[in-house]
Design a protein that fits this description.
The structure is a single chain. The chain contains 6 helices and no strands. Helix 2 crosses helix 4 and helix 2 packs across helix 5. The N terminus is likely disordered.
């Protein structure tokens, strides 16, 4: 168990030390309005990234996040897809395709749209 935690810590530090190429933000939070429901959806979906130490999940599951919120899975998926569309239109790159969710997580965390303090919104 300790070895696993040590390896995860090293990998987390390696990821944080490497300059990111996933999501390039040219829009800030003020140019792309996000509602409280958008923030709640992102916190539920990316809660693993916000824990201390991070519990990296490269492919977060929407059904688990929807269950945390008590929402239907389709509601969460459509909300996140619409948010990705608005951000892409505003100039944030790499929010489409197979790597869209990790890129959205990186964007949301690095720009401060979601923080560790937001975990209280979902009871964590």
């Amino acid at each position: 168990m300790r070895r696993t935690l040590a390896v995860l810590s090293v990998l987390t530090l390696m990821v944080l030390a490497v300059p990111s190429t996933m999501a390039t933000a040219s829009a800030d939070e003020s140019t792309v309005p996000s509602s409280d429901a958008d923030r709640l959806a992102m916190v539920a979906l990316f809660a693993g990234y916000l824990h201390d130490p991070p519990r990296h999940d490269p492919h977060p599951r929407s059904y688990a996040a929807a269950a945390r919120l008590g929402w239907p899975k389709t509601t969460l998926i459509k909300r996140v897809e619409y948010l990705r569309t608005r951000l892409t239109t505003a100039g944030v790159s790499n929010l489409t395709g197979w790597n869209a969710l990790p890129a959205l997580a990186e964007y949301a965390i690095t720009t401060g749209v979601i923080t560790k303090e937001h975990l209280t919104l979902i009871g964590l």
